[in-house]
Design goal:
Aminoglycoside 3'-phosphotransferase, Chain: A, domain 2
């Protein structure tokens, strides 16, 4: 599912083209498994994911297109994002993956879990309606089985967001009341055990860094460019900030 927003990341890992009311994207060995997942989500009535229309004559996947806007970063919007993620996870819990399923697992990521995680949940990969209601998540290439917490951890990092003040200001985000918004997200998702959340955030950031290094040095498209240009310093800086602040956030979140 695509968007007409101009807020895509600087480094696109898959080339995307709009054709009429569809999006065409390159495929990989993981595509059949992802398509099986998206078909399952459609059958279960989950509306927050792309609809798959097959493969075109150029070997690209054909997905539905949706016009949308960007986030407002309001507290009620954050709660609705958390609820949409919970609905996604609940819908994937009954998914039976094909016996020959191949997923694109990130370096060091868990390879089994109670749900199938999106693995790249962020405002950039979310389509919002005119009233800033989150409608759907796009860019499913990294979807793979994992524990719910693996997705929730990355989502709170990106949606709260758990960035330092300077990074929030540079990206045009309002500086969040991080402890309060962590609780809003967890309450809306219905996350009962919260002790492991922030350690998992740190683990998840480290996994992205290790993946960017491994895949970048291997020359994978997109990853090669971001690793060459940044050496992952943006993620290491984010990791240092979360590690420094997480004790205070945990005290307020876990009580």
């Amino acid at each position: 599912m695509g968007s007409d927003r101009d807020s895509r990341p600087t480094y696109g890992l898959t080339e995307v083209e709009r054709v009429g009311e569809t999006i065409r994207r390159g495929t990989g060995r993981w595509t059949p498994a992802v398509h099986a997942l998206l078909a399952h989500l459609e059958r279960t009535g989950f509306e927050g994911a792309p609809r798959v229309f097959g493969i075109d004559s150029d070997g690209r996947e054909i997905l539905s297109f949706l016009t949308g806007g960007g986030p407002s970063h309001a507290d009620d919007e954050l709660a609705r994002v958390a609820q949409l993620i919970r609905a996604l996870h609940d819908s994937t819990a009954s998914f039976e993956e094909p016996p020959d399923a191949e997923w694109q697992f990130m370096v060091g990521a868990p390879r089994r879990g109670d749900v199938v995680c999106h693995n790249d949940l962020s405002p950039d990969n979310t389509i919002y309606g005119p009233d800033r209601t989150p409608l759907a998540f796009i860019d499913w290439d990294l979807a793979a089985p994992a524990p719910r917490l693996w997705d929730v951890a990355w989502a709170v990092y990106r949606f709260v967001p758990l960035y330092d003040d300077a990074t929030c200001e540079r990206l045009g985000y309002p500086v969040p009341a991080r402890s309060t918004q962590l609780r809003i997200f967890c309450d809306a998702y219905g996350l009962e055990s919260r002790d492991a959340l922030l350690p998992t955030v740190c683990q998840r950031i480290r996994t992205l860094y290790d993946t960017a290094q491994s895949w970048g040095e291997a020359g994978l498209p997109g990853w090669r460019d971001v690793w060459r240009d940044t050496r992952g310093e943006q993620w290491l800086g984010g990791l240092r900030y979360v590690e420094a602040e997480r004790g205070e956030w945990e005290r307020k979140l876990v009580g």
